[in-house]
Amino acid sequence: QFDLETLYADKDDNWQGVLETLVSGWTVLSVLMTPANPQAAPRLAVGLGGLADLALRLGCDNPADLARETATFVRAHFISASVRLADQFGHADDTETCHAGLRLFLQEGEAALRLGLSPFSHRDLYQTGDAEPVARLRPSMAHALNQHGDHCDSAERHLFGTRTLAGDTPVNHEALHDLGFTELELEGLERALMSLEHLEDVFRSPVLDGGFIRDVLGFDPEDDAPLLAQLGFSPADMAATQAQVLGYHDLSQWTDAPPALSDWLALTADDVEAEIMAAIDGLSDTPAPLRIDLDWDETLVDGARAISHAAREGVRALSLRRTTPPASLGFDADIAPVELTAPEIAAPSPSPQPRIVERVIERDRTRRKLPDRRKGYIQKAAVGGHKVYIHTGEYEDGELGEIFIDMHKEGAAFRSLMNNFAIAISIGLQYGVPLDEFVDAFVFTRFEPAGRVTGNDSIRSATSILDYIFRELGVSYLDRAELANAAGEAGDGLDSPDNDAETVPAARFISKGFARGTTPDNLVVVPFGKKPERPAAAPSVSDATACPACGDFALQNRGGRWTCDSCGVSPQMQG
After folding, report:
1. Predicted confidence band at 541 (pLDDT cuts at 50, 70, 90)?
2. How many CA within 13 A on the CB side of residue 131?
3. What is the DSSP letter of 340?
4. Cα 186 vs. chain centroid, distance in angstroms?
5. How large is the angle between the packed helices 51-58 and 269-281, nearest 10 degrees?
6. What is the distance between the terminal CA atoms of the chain, rounded to a whole angstrom?
7. CA-CA to 438 of 20 to 30 Å: which in 173, 298, 474, 534?
8. Cα–Cα dist 163/154, whole Å
9. DSSP labels for 9-26?
10. Beta-carbon neighbour count of residue 318 at 10 Å?
11. Distance between CA 494 and CA 525 in Å, rounded?
């Protein structure tokens, strides 16, 4: 198999002389490899690859003329070499029988892959240095366009499109933004447009997040229906956007085509291959098979009818193939129902011993997003003299869903680290990580700043900023009273020891801005809503000793052994 375009590029004006040498050499080789049997006539198959590309480079009006001329040239030198060999071997009187077998059609996929041959088309694929396939304008077509002016850029825009929705297409950024698409989704669409070839593949999972399709757009992400049609775009809008953004399959509809190449561009890839086959078919001893695709459900009678019709039309060779059946193909089995006889009742067997069966229950991994207008509280405190602001966000049922941590007069790196830590905790809470896990993981962590806590009525000391934050969250949301190291006053104000019957205005706990005036001004919290009595509190700070490990005044002597109620350390005390 020969790549005529590469042969022309390497040898230029002498490419036909090199082709003559190759044909003569292979003819001699085919005769020498044939057994000495007159009935086993030698056959030589020559594949003329790259004819269409070579015709474009030579400026031919159509590929058929060059194909016919090249096939005549190859056949003439094949016969010439055969005659010389027949005369040398003493078969000059029987040349046509023994040495005249030439086939000009060769379909070898492996050989074509090694030579870089591919069926003719206006667009081509090549492999980058990173082994990535990239689409491009076919080099022979680009060469022909450059010969008639600078048209390559316009041709590439027609073939591959603009690859962006930021233009004036029916489906554009503005229209999608009005439907609920944010900058995050639009950026994902733009990245997908660089590699995909169908607009429907861009607007589906995994390019778009399944949660966004379900929660924002209101559609089922597993549905195969085109998303753009569900959003209200018409088929004409989608077709126009497909053509402008992702381009066309060929240049047959290119309006800026140069007149000299109008005949070439009017032919599709199949038309070019058909003209080449028709031109060299009469010069080949073995005809090129005509391929006929039968429907997947056609019978042998339909195949015989196709063969008869081709024979009447003068087709010398035929190739029949079935098309691929649809993926949704199914068969209905007509099976008679089986009558089941009643089984015999056996004697009751002893009840089996109960056994324990473990089941793996997978937690739902979807993200539970917070409402846009949410409630929560802000707690201001200072740990070791460093101010800390904790801002919480809650779901409608009161469950914690997010936290924000602000530090006062700290460095930018430390503030940024705490902000991103709060974001990580918030995402974990929204994906279902229990707050208990975070509390147990971060309490008693030890680093500076640490020490005395001011501004919090339940926590008086902490071993670090994280220890204070998760003590506060554990006390407020999990009723973890053991994490509080001060008795203090309850956060709801309902256990005032001075006057148990005194009512408390609800405005103390309900945000007027959050309620937007829906709560009356005379709403109060009645005293019978008081929390249950807490267990006996630890000794006051004045009765305790400072812990040498954490600095908290929570070191107690129990049974002759000193133990810190805050950090759990048991230091060796003397005296």
Report:
1. very low
2. 0
3. P
4. 15
5. 100
6. 101
7. 534
8. 14
9. HHHGGGHHHHHHHHHHHH
10. 16
11. 8
- Helix or strand holding residue 404 (H, E): strand 400-407
Query: Which carries the bigger pLDDT value, residue 493 or residue 473?
Result: 473
Is residue 323 within 8 Å of 296, Cβ to Cβ? yes
374 Cβ contact partners less than 8 Å away, ≥ 6 residues apart:
393, 394, 395, 401
Residue partners of 135: CB distance under 8 A and separation at least 6: 123, 124, 125, 159, 160
Say what percent of the chain tops pLDDT 70. 77
Token couple for 376: 């929560």
Tell me if 396 sits within 8 A of 373, measured CB to CB.
Answer: no
Residue (of 73, 95, 91) closest to 24 by Cα position? 73
Beginning with the edge strand found earlier in the chain, give each strand of the sheet holding 378-383 in spatial order: 400-407, 386-394, 378-383, 451-454, 461-462
Cβ neighbours of 142 (radius 10 Å): 17
Per-residue tokens: 302: 């339909």
Is residue 239 within 8 A of residue 161, CB to CB? The reply is no
Distance CA 500, CA 526 (A): 10
* Spatial CA neighbour of 151 closest among 13, 287, 264, 230: 264
Q: How many CB atoms lie within 10 A of CB 472?
A: 24
Q: For the purposes of burial, counting CB atoms within 10 Å of the CB of 303, is it exposed (0-12), middle (13-18) or buried (19 or more)?
A: middle
pLDDT number for residue 334:
57
Token reading at 429:
């809470």
CA distance 476 to 167: 52
> Which range is least confidently modeled, 156-165, 434-443, 504-513?
504-513
Q: In a 10 Å sphere around its CB, with 0-12 CB exposed, 13-18 middle and 19+ buried, how is residue 155 labelled?
A: buried
- Considering only CA atoms, which of 151, 124, 148 is closest in space to residue 5? 124
- Identify which has the larger pLDDT, 108 or 346: 108
In angstroms, the CA 405 to CA 421 distance is 9
Task: Determine if the peptide bond prior to 206 is cis (ω within 30°).
Answer: yes
Query: pLDDT tens, 90-145?
Result: 665 555 545 556 777 666 667 776 777 777 888 887 777 777 777 888 888 888 88
Query: What is the spatial distance between Cα 478 and Cα 483, in angstroms, rounded to a whole number?
Result: 10
From CA 514, how far away is CA 523, in angstroms rounded?
15
In which element (H, E) is residue 56 found? helix 51-58
Per this entry, what is the length of the chain?
575
DSSP result, 234-246: -HHHHHHHHHHHH
Are 158 and 251 in contact by the 8 Å Cβ rule? The answer is yes
Angle (deg, nearest 10), helices 435-442 and 412-430: 140
Q: Across the strands, what pairs with 44?
A: 102
Distance from the Cα of residue 491 to its chain's centroid: 49
Task: Please write the tens of the pLDDT for every residue from 447-487.
Answer: 888 888 999 988 988 998 999 999 999 999 998 888 887 65
H or E segment at 30? Answer: helix 15-32
Distance CA 234, CA 86 (A): 71
Under a CB-based contact definition with an 8 Å cutoff, are residues 537 and 562 in contact?
A: no
Instruction: Please report which helix (H) or strand (E) contains residue 520, including its range.
Output: none
